[in-house]
């Protein structure tokens, strides 16, 4: 039989949030949130932690306009959940790189990033881009979008669990 | 301790004259299958015979995951009675030990085996008991029946290699993209998922660094269900997306907090106490929802339509020791 | 109280545009199905929304029995969450009320309905949700799939009349023998069961009194599973033999002691506490074995090969009142 | 696919008994027995109750040789589980019938049964015969067989639960 399916994605303008239905537990222990809801209430490029496991985090970013330039001592990955986001990459020169190779999380590049242009990419919904370690990268998004970052918790990570999570 | 060759020795019977299946023994546990069921028997802690019956399709779907995942993280419950706990070099096999009533009544059994011994037994059992036309990895609407007498096998389907990117899917020398040519057509339920690849504009020499891929297109071409791949890796942070349809064939009792990010469609989760099996919560996840499974729970998902779930795992080898020492948090975050 | 016409009014939606199925409401319970699942939602005793998911094939097999049996004796659990209790003029529908944890947590819901109201709702749900080619009465190896979008119906299969002898099968004006001509061929799994009829030597005029029939041949021609007929009646003592294959689709919590006599092959029973669902015992029954199910238990059977089970019921109408007054024994016999 | 099945019946000479596997309960509450085991230890035509529910019973009889003549105020049914058993029926005259129409269970006919011969039947394994109320009936079995009686508990019913049931 030939049936057609409709795959249901969410977006800033159209999402439906699920819920925890507690039976005999504290709903806070499920840290239940929604990336579109978080991004709809965030300022551009706030790195809102919405998943964390020891040093590792998943951050939810509202992509809107140009982000600052970031760099990080380890690889990161950006997954676009809504919108169209450009990622511009510069092979950062050593003095501007994170000096501590073990430092977790992205930091702002001090001053204007110096180094070879590596190129850029345009990510649409479902596209996941590599943010190689020790590069400088900038997001550019003409309209509001949503980016999920796979990274480690760093100086710029923002935690506001009580605001984003179902609490009862 | 036995030599590795002995450890991998599998205790099995000749095929049953009528049914065609072999029986297996592992320590104090016996396994046999017939047309409809897997039968597990054991001697209880207080010395009496006890048995358990599972629908064999459900049993094989669970066994498939346990084998393919190398016993995974923590506990893999086949149902409310039988399951395994991974200690990473050894594995516990148990019946009733994580069932509040059976444990309290002393009728459970738990034995620890070297990983290679239980793995060899489970692999042979899976191969012997899986018939031609039944793919335990496939969605129920996409495979034939597991029932009946022994007929052929499906070794190719049950020995699929796990797809594990080292850094990121699509990089040189890393896990390749899925394509028609590589035997990975778009699944019927994801026919509407865009297959475009990201626009890449690398400067010369940066072709392997200015890199992105279409994760949703990659997942739309998954041939299996409830079987996470690694698609991107940050230190020991693993993105393990998977496509889900029907019921998660195991009830997973992770030994660490595990995070789920629902990327499309929806999954409903039953969460229960890891030790006793008592219901704790339901978690209804829709596109864009994030939820953590606390380390004290066991969880089983229901996906009405094939959906994309990002399982996010912390695979740090230190975590095993922290868990053993009780230093690892059971809840995802305090607030 | 509402008039009967109102009671039988079924609250249902228009068919879902994609899936083709209707949703149903009964009191505070809502039911919908999709390709794989029945979804039941309710408001808990403490006022919160809660949901439950069941594989739709299992749900329909359970619903079929509940409908066909007129809610049977006592409790018909579809699984560990949802079920009905028959009060013989009214019926309780519940979610979680006989699940120890859910009950203690106050997240259950129980509502009492006039029998005709819940019966009408269940009948329409069963008819709307059962696709062409799926027979909820048939053994899994003898029917097509319950899954997928709505396609046709199988009204003939789900409205089979229960076969109830008044005195004895084969007597004049009583339930007829099963034959090929009457659409009851011998089942594949009973092809070796002798079809001879007893030698009868009645003197003239005693043809309807010197009477016997081949019960095993009669049962070998059963087209359904887990669906007792009445074959002989002594006062309110009913012989209710049935042929069983795969899993009893309900977990029966009888309100009286119920006896099983295994006439051929074997069935394995899981017995659990009626109120909480906690495991109590396994009962392994082989040809010639007799066992009672105490009235405090719920039971679910597993039949690896089609087998003949004699369910022996006490259908005395007084028993209902004795049960209500707590005068009916919970155990079969004291010794 | 064409597979052939073997339907497994039991007999006095060949039966396999199952068991109760207690988890958290008293096995006696399941009154678990086996008709072939009971009959193999019974004297001919002992009416051993192996199922009871209020006034109703199922009795297990070892059929061997000729039984006494019985009569009963209500219908009974005989199901043969092993052997070949003849049932002879006489339309009992009123004086020899059970005088109390409500009396439960079979009794022995006093003296030789008087009345019209109704005929007889030969029951093999799986055959179930009607024993109409107020008739006299006699079982005849050349070799040992097993009969299950659907009846009510009466004067001749024998209960020895502790002997026939699994007790631990
Ligand atoms: Fe898990
Ligand atoms: Fe029952």
TrEMBL record, chains A, D:
Keywords: Dioxygenase, Oxidoreductase. InterPro entries: RmlC-like_jellyroll (IPR014710), RmlC_Cupin_sf (IPR011051). GO terms for molecular function: dioxygenase activity. This is Hydroxyquinol 1,2-dioxygenase. It comes from Caldimonas caldifontis.
From TrEMBL, chains B, C:
SUPFAM superfamilies: RmlC-like cupins. Keywords: Dioxygenase, Oxidoreductase. InterPro entries: PnpCD_PnpD_N (IPR040908), RmlC_Cupin_sf (IPR011051). It comes from the Bacteria. Residues 13-162 form the Hydroquinone 1,2-dioxygenase large subunit N-terminal domain. One of its GO terms (molecular function) is dioxygenase activity. Signal peptide: none annotated. The keyword S-adenosyl-L-methionine does not apply. This is Hydroxyquinol 1,2-dioxygenase.
């Amino acid at each position: 039989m030939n049936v057609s399916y409709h795959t249901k994605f969410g977006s800033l303008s159209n999402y439906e949030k699920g819920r925890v239905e507690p039976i005999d537990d504290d709903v806070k222990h499920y840290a239940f949130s929604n990336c579109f809801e978080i991004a709809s209430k965030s300022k551009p490029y706030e790195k809102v932690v919405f998943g964390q496991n020891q040093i590792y985090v998943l951050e939810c970013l509202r992509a809107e306009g140009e982000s600052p330039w970031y760099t990080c001592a380890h690889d990161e990955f950006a997954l676009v959940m809504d919108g169209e986001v450009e990622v511009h990459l510069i092979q950062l020169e050593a003095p501007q790189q994170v000096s501590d190779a073990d430092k977790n999380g992205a930091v702002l590049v001090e001053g204007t990033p110096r180094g070879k242009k590596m190129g850029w990419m345009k990510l649409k919904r479902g596209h996941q881009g590599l943010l190689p370690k020790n590069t400088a990268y900038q997001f550019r998004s003409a309209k509001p979008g949503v980016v999920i970052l796979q990274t480690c918790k760093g100086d710029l990570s923002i935690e506001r669990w009580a605001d984003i999570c179902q609490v009862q | 301790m036995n030599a590795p060759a002995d450890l991998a020795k599998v205790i099995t019977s000749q095929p049953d004259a009528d049914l065609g299946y072999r029986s297996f023994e592992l320590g104090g546990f016996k396994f046999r299958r017939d047309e409809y069921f897997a039968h597990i028997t054991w001697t209880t802690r207080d010395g009496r015979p006890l048995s358990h019956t599972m629908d064999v399709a459900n049993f094989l779907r669970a066994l498939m995951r346990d084998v393919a995942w190398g016993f995974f993280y923590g506990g893999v419950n086949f149902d409310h009675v039988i399951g395994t706990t991974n200690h990473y070099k050894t594995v516990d096999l148990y019946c009733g030990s994580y069932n509040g009533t059976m444990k309290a009544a002393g009728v459970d059994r738990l034995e620890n085996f070297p990983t290679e011994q239980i793995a060899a037994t489970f692999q042979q059992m899976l191969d012997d008991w899986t018939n031609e036309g039944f793919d335990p990895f496939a969605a129920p609407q996409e495979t034939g029946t597991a029932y009946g007498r022994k007929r052929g096998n499906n070794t190719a389907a049950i020995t699929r290699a796990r797809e594990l990117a080292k850094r990121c899917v699509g990089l040189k020398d890393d896990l390749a993209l899925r394509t028609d040519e590589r035997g990975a057509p778009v699944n019927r339920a994801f026919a509407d998922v865009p297959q475009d690849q990201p626009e890449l504009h690398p400067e010369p020499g940066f072709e392997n660094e200015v890199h992105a891929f279409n994760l949703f297109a990659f997942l739309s071409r998954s041939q299996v269900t409830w079987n996470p791949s690694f698609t991107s890796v940050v230190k020991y942070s693993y993105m393990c997306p998977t496509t889900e349809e029907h019921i998660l064939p195991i009830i997973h009792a992770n030994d660490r907090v595990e995070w789920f990010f629902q990327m499309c469609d929806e999954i409903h989760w039953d969460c229960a106490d890891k030790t006793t099996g008592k219901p704790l919560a339901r978690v209804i996840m829709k596109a864009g929802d994030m939820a953590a499974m606390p380390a004290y729970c066991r969880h089983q998902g229901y996906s009405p339509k094939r959906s994309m779930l990002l399982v996010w795992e912390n695979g740090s080898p230190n975590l095993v020791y922290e868990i053993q020492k009780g230093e690892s948090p059971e809840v995802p975050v305090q607030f």
